[in-house]
Amino acid sequence: MMSWHPHATVAVIVEKEGKFLLVEESSSGKIVFNQPAGHIEEDETFIEAACRETLEESAWYVTPKYLVGFYIYKSGNNNTTYHRACFYAEALSHDPTLELDDGIIRAVWMTRDEIESNLEKLRSPMVLKCIDDYLAGKEYPLELIHEYSN
Question: What is the mean pLDDT of residues 29-42?
Fold first, then answer.
C-alpha cells in the first residue's frame, strides 16, 4: 500500500506600489509565474521558510507581517498535494548580486490585472487566489501558528 504525503509549503505575497512580487520559473517543462514559494525544510519554522524562499527566489529580504490563509491544491501535473501557508510580507531590501535558485528565471513585479491576464502561465490557481484573498483583507496574526520542538 502506498502512503500519501502532502508537501508542506509556504508562499509570500509582497506588494509595492500596487504591484506584486512574482517569480518567473521553469516548472514541468513550462515557464510559469508564482509567488516566491517553496517547501519547508526540516527544523525550519513557517516564518523562516517564508523569508528563506523569498530571498532565494527573488533576492528580496522580507519580514512576514501576517498570514493570509492556508490552501490545499492537488496538482494535475504531478498528482502531488500541496499544503500552502501564504503570508503577506513587507519588502525590506533587494540584493541584485545574489544568484537566484535553480529554475528561477527572474523576479518580476506585476499588477493584479497583469497576473489575471496571464492565468494560463500561473503555476497553480493558488497564485491568484492568494492575491485576491490578500486584497479582500484576509489577515490572520502570526501568533495563530504554534510551533513546538523538543
Answer: 95
pLDDT of residue 119: 94
Instruction: State the Cα–Cα distance between residues 83 and 76, nearest whole angstrom.
Output: 15
**CA dihedral of residues 16, 20, 24, 30 (deg, nearest 10):** 180
Chain centroid to CA 9: how far? 8
Query: Per DSSP, what are the bridge partners of residue 62?
Result: 91
* pLDDT(1) > 70: no
Asked if 82 contacts 9 with a C-beta cutoff of 8 angstroms, the reply is yes
Q: How far is CA 19 from CA 46, 109, 121, in A?
A: 24, 5, 17
Radius of gyration of the chain from its Cα atoms, rounded to whole angstroms: 15
The three cell numbers of residue 117 are 491576464
CA distance 51 to 17: 21
Strand runs labelled E in 14-54: 15-16, 19-27, 30-34, 37-39
Cell numbers linked to 47: 516564518
pTM of the model: 0.93
